[in-house]
Here is the input.
Amino acid sequence: MVPVNTPVVGRSPPRSRVGAPGPTRSGSFRPGSRENLLFRTTSLATDVSEDAALGELLDLLSDDYARAILAVTSVRPMSAKQIAEECDMSQPTVYRRAERLKEFELIEEQTHVRTGGNDYNVYAATLSEFSMQLDEGSYEASVESSPPPAFPGDTEDDTADRFTKMWEHL
Amino acid sequence: MVGASTAVQWFVLALAFGSTVVGAYVGYQAYRGYRRHHSRTMQYLSVGLFLLTAVAFSTAFVGSLLLRQGLLPDSFQQSLTLLTRTFQFVGVLFIAYSLHRRG
Here is the structure.
């Protein structure tokens, strides 16, 4: 008779994901997993640089402005001006946070070409999941990203949902 | 020649019927979008699409059938056109309003 909550011995197998869209980017890639392993830090080893990188990412995600930018740009791509208005923050704040988010590839900058020549840049969140595990003295953090949809509602399965998202964001 | 022109007329009728069906389908998807997302924007869009396609086309379709069969006097031709155009105009008004309202 095995007790139900036996602690798992050893490393748990990589979680497999169904339907995680898009390719994985940067960082070391774990075979058999669609997750993108960005940081593996351990308190036993002296890998300060990766430890610092995870710390920086957590710092960034703890920032209200950065999270607000991620949230609004996950709905549809927005220019810095639109983000500033939507989130009630100054444009320099938007640019600063967006730069940091770009460094960690949580957000993507796209250029909107306009016929008049007044091109402008928009930001689109690419982050879909961030997770962190503590296992035997080491942290494992992974960032899963998906390419931003070509148009709002692109990823919806139902025609009515796609139609609604597309029409509402015209 | 008479046969050919009759064939064309039937083809026009068939196209009008097709537009009614396909238009109603698009309007139905907009209506489902309204129901699923409680979106007023989609409500206006679906009403507009129904008026523009299903209502206007079926009015024209049924009307011209009745005229062809002689069940309606020819003098109704103009009022039928007026009615159809009115439905179409109100339909596009709804769609334009849906485009510009927010939320």
About this structure: The domain at 32-168 of chain A is CATH 1.10.10.10 (Arc Repressor Mutant, subunit A). The interface with chain B takes residues 158-161, 163-164, 167-168, 170 of chain A (CB under 8 Å).
